[in-house]
Design brief:
The chain contains 29 helices and 7 strands. By secondary structure, the chain is mainly alpha-helical. Helix 3 packs antiparallel against helix 5.
Length: about 725
Amino acid sequence: MPKRIITLACASVLTALVGCGETTESTATTESKAPMQSQPEAPQKKSANTLLADWAGPYQGVPAFDKMALSDLKAALETAMAEGLVNIEAIANNPAPASFDNTIAALEGSTQTLDRVFTYYYIWMANNSSEEYRSIQGEMVPALSAFSSQITQNKALFNRIETVFKNPSFKDLRADQQRLTQIVYGNFARNGSTLEGEAKDRYAEIETRLAELYTKFSNNVLHDEQNYVIYLDESQLSGLPKSFVSAAKAAAETKGENGKYAVSNTRSSMDPFLTYSEERALREQVWRSYYSRGDNGDEYDNNAIIAEILKLREERVQLLGYDNYAQWRLEDRMAGSPDNAMALLESVWPAAIARVNEEVADMQAIADAESSEKITIEPWDYRFYAEKVRKAKYDLDSNEVKQYLQLDKLREAMFYVAGRLFNFEFTPITDGSVPVFHEDVNVWEVTDKTTKQHIGLWYLDPFAREGKRSGAWATTYRQFSDYDGVTNVLASNNSNFVKGAAGAPVLVSWDDAETFFHEFGHALHYLSSSVSYPSLSGGVRDYTEFQSQLLERWLMTDEVINQFLTHVDTGKPMPAELLAKIKNAATFNEGFATTEYLASAIIDLKLHMVEAADIDPDAFERDTLTQMGMPKELVMRHRTPHFGHVFSGEGYSAGYYGYMWAEVLTSDAAAAFDESEGGYYDPVMADKLVKHLFQVQNSVDPAEAYRAFRGRDANVEALMRDRGFPINSEQ
């Protein structure tokens, strides 16, 4: 049974899904896969409800996004859950002795219909939300939670799982089957299967309430993102690049505000506005609007919701015998304990805030020199004056760099890297054979460059729009497996770039380009999978970000820069002198980036390590940051009232530290490429990368997989060097 069914109550945002190859004809990615026809036709099970039907058409069948109807959703969920419970009961009450095949493997396919329905459910949730959908969602969340509890609290089923796990024959299973059994047993035991009586009932009640709160939290943030749009007139555009102005005009027109310019309440709109706008009062307005999401003291305020979530999480894990939520959450992660995770964060914190102090001093000096009116750097000034410092110290203009970062070209660059490292080839599907849920979505077939073997499909949904949650993420509609016939992969990347005028190239920032590569790394992780069982896809949270973070490094390779980073007007490649400036400024503003991240990660951990009674989230955030010595010139990357990673579900709860844990691995692994004879396109290193870091997913313990790649464990020194911080700093 896919592990997401175990945590259905938590699955309210797609960030809960994980994800993160080369031309020297490395076929490592596909060697272990059974042959797969290029376009096998999939038969369709007849059903009046499209959401329940088997996926038909080419490529082993694809979601019927062009036929999905919201009016079918509730009935589809109810029918699929009922079918799933029948299958679960059949496994739990099988008269034959419990075995891996009739229990653990059988669970993998027990909710296939519900998996298909969830594909549509998540599309409406993350990519195309509406009031009608949210009404259905609110009605169905308790039912989904109850469904999850019926599975995890099925005593007969858990007894069979435990029998397989503790049977002496366990040692005779294949290594991946042993790991799957261990993971399934752990998921059940850690989610209430060992409870009895009142404790069991209370656990189920908590799960249901949490599911409702996660949905409410997420919808509140979405409300504030959609309803706090700031409209400008032409007199308020000073300093803004033409590309931003054009996109803001187009955004206003889509909202019926012709002749105006819209600054949306999303990071992709906020960040460039704060970087370039010369209107200080407007910068403050945009900043306050963005960082106040979920914290406006109205019916969409999330503070009371957060307080209740924290209390319920604590009560739930205490029923299982844990001291606090963080202890429970990190038990099966690479970090192992909240103390280990906190130790990493606190080891970097002093150097980060020391660098912030240096950055602020540089910015204040420019502000003092430029203005006759004395100003003190405030959070809404940081990006604006940082850009001025960048120009002064490094002669580097971010807007100049942006002219070489065309979204379509970046996509082609990602395909190039995938070809060089993974031997993948991407071919656009333009014949209409693969339905999409919005006109902005495009699809590519992924094949092996050498054998032409079909691997899967890649969907791209790049632009922001009404009803789409902010941020960037990756997900799968179908994962690779071969335990019951070989399946291909349907992977998707989703972003929120601001769409410009029709036909105009979309230009993005360097940070956005890195994020694009990052999320594509998740897609490559899916596409390269060779695991037999779907529940072994992905991996533990503080490891799965590693693969995607590592892929960001290829953006800076000469091969990508020289071929794909070309000027939007002249078509000429980025000049060597500009590239030199970028590399010279690689650690510029690292104090800001590291500190805003660390503050979020530390607050997340601390919230889940202390007693949850009577926590006031706003006061806790403010007081804890003060105690930490948080510089007043910036804020957390994700303030608590809109921290969707942590409170829209449980994908990153007490686990946001995982980005830095993974980055230790990333910096250490990148050093291996730096040290290799062929650099980032070394065929031997590419082969090791695919075999040990991407293909195996969660079928191998992450620590073992990394040692197989690197020959040793990672250390933090490479991370400190990458960020330009002193190693073993005592600051």
